[in-house]
Amino acid sequence: MLVFEENLFGIPECELDLAKLFPDKKERLRFDGKLQSFLASDPTNSEIYFLKRDALRYYTESFISNNNDGRPPLLLLLGNPASHSTAAGMCFAFEGSRREHRFWKALRETELLDFLPEQIDPNHNYRELNNLRKQALLNLDYISPFRVGIAVFYSMPSPASDQKWSGVNGLRRLLGQRALNIIAAEEEKRIARILDVFMKQAGGIIVFQRDAYNNLISQDSLPYSLNLALQGSLIGKYKRDSRIPLVGSPPTRRLHGESSMAAFRKCKDFIINSTMLD
Fold first, then answer.
1. Which residues make beta-bridge pairs with 4?
2. Could you tell me if 218 and 244 are in contact, meaning their C-beta atoms sit under 8 angstroms apart?
């Protein structure tokens, strides 16, 4: 039903079989009607979505290098990509009027991930900076206690600036809860394949979105709670390997202000302590 272009760093391609996802004709017609509005909500959707009969092809984001320099692996797992970032070829390509996204600032301020001076040089335009950061993630050429991978739980991008269609809630509006649940099961298998390769040694996962967290935690872990995430106290274990800690961070849109940053720092410190880093 959902086929992924595996083992490609950066912007891999996916294909969704709509006939299998929507076997009921009425449900498919409702989806087709909403799809047109969804695609029209952001001009960059035309660059990343391609529909041919029952095959909906689209590009997604996965920045997980096959290189290994001995640092413990850390997966940063987001909800789903933003259309404009996928079209730009780099996650969190920019926000607002091409300014640096708060996500990179949060990683830098918590010392979880910092790029080298030339990779954040303000003399570069945002396209150059995106490419430098992409290459840094591929080559592990950055400052961090971890070997960092960045992925999304739901592979389908959605517009960041359109309130109706943005984020995972936009996908839920487009697909409906039944179809989204089916897709979530396929996405969880994809994440498991990623972790089988990426996390062969001690490491951890920081999750930034409710569905991603709830689909990956073990049965004896706490279910998602925004309040706990905002306190840096949403701590669980990965359901396929209880040795891997899984922490729920404040959502990326909240990564500003002292309290959210303090919570995010607690997430980072917990993973460091769990992996017994010096």
1. 14
2. no
